[in-house]
Design a protein that fits this description.
13 strands
Length: about 240
């Protein structure tokens, strides 16, 4: 599939499945990872994040974007189109997604980690739900026969695995409920990212307070809160001190 975005021609390999096409549509048609523009107000956060991106680049550094739950790479490609000087670390546990992720990020400024994100490095259970958009990982052994073990990495470890020295910029998290264990402990390395984008999954796993630990992190760190479509945008308020209008 050929997509034109912000003057870029992007070739995206996919399986012609509903899941793949939905993911591409959400990224490039809905622009689900663009910082929201309020109806009755200036998009202050978007403007400041753009200024921060330009400052990082003008200082000779590289903005780091971590894509947790990268799927086939549609989100990573959107981020690289939106922030072309950034470096991506794409994290994905599903082997069938990894094959396309590697094709889509070939020759891009990107690293691929075959595994999952969690609070600290450990081995996890991967649960194949039958949907390439909604596979899950858990920190305990699941009795479901469609399971196998995958490596889990903390944000600190993922940053260290980047092959390019870079400045934490955006952390996108769409990990199908594993945010509950990812944010089980306050993660100060996560707070280094100016923007954390989370798709919460309470809707998918009701009665388990899946996103509660994320909100503990968000409030503890006193970050700004925005939302758009399925995603929460948690923004480090230091950007308003570091970047002057």
């Amino acid at each position: 599939m050929i997509i034109k975005h912000r003057g870029n021609i992007i070739n995206i390999y996919h399986r012609k499945t509903h899941d793949d096409l939905l993911g591409i549509w959400q990224c490039f048609k809905l622009s689900q990872y663009e910082l929201p523009k309020p109806i009755l107000c200036e998009p202050y956060h978007r403007n400041y994040i753009d200024k921060l991106y330009n400052k990082i680049v003008s200082d000779g550094d590289t903005p780091l974007i971590i894509d947790c739950g990268a799927n086939i790479g549609a989100g990573s490609l959107w981020f690289l189109s939106r922030y072309p000087k950034a470096h991506i670390v794409a994290v994905e546990p599903n082997p069938s997604n990894i094959k396309l992720l590697k094709k889509n990020l070939h020759n891009k400024s990107a690293d691929i980690i075959e595994g999952a994100v969690v609070r600290d490095d450990q081995i996890l259970t991967f649960v194949d739900t039958g949907s390439t958009l909604a596979n899950q990982v858990a920190d305990d052994q699941n009795k479901n026969p469609n399971t196998y073990r995958v490596a889990g990495y903390s944000i600190k470890s993922i940053v260290e695995k980047s092959t390019k020295k870079s400045v934490p910029f955006i952390l996108k998290i769409d990990i199908e409920g594993a945010e509950k264990i990812m944010f089980d402990n306050i993660e100060y390395d996560t707070n280094k990212f100016s923007v954390v984008i989370l798709e919460p999954h309470d809707f998918m796993i009701p009665g388990k307070a899946i996103s509660a630990n994320f909100f503990k992190f968000h409030s503890k760190m006193e970050r700004d809160f925005l939302f758009w479509e399925e995603n929460i945008f948690s923004i480090n308020t230091n950007i308003f001190k570091d970047i002057r209008s």
